[in-house]
Amino acid sequence: MFVGLRASHGRDAIVHAVVEGVTFGLAYGLDALRRAGVAPTEVTLIGGGSASDAWAQLCADIFGLPVVRPRSWRLPRRAPRARRSGRSK
Questions:
Q1: Is residue 2 part of a domain?
Q2: Which helix (H) or strand (E) holds 67?
Q3: What pLDDT sits at residue 70?
Q4: Against a cut of 0.85, is the pTM above it?
Q5: Of all helices (H) and strands (E), which one includes residue 31?
Q6: Would you say residue 6 lies in a domain?
Q7: Overall domain count for the chain
Q8: Which residues span the domain enclosing 55?
Q9: Do the domain assignments include residue 25?
């Protein structure tokens, strides 16, 4: 549901609203962990979205925690093959 959506809102505003909504959904999960006694001190972003400085800042703002992004979130090329064969190395 988009509240306050007008014809004057462009693609960028809609995309921002979707990303913001997803991030608030993640915050709901984080709050559930906090209620269960988990006290995170930072959040690590991985995956394609972690390359976005804007999303990292949005996460930091909404979660109220520092955000960490690994230099590379991709697994080594051989990892999926090793996992399929049952080998860990």
A1: no
A2: strand 67-68
A3: 86
A4: no
A5: helix 11-35
A6: no
A7: 1
A8: 11-85
A9: yes
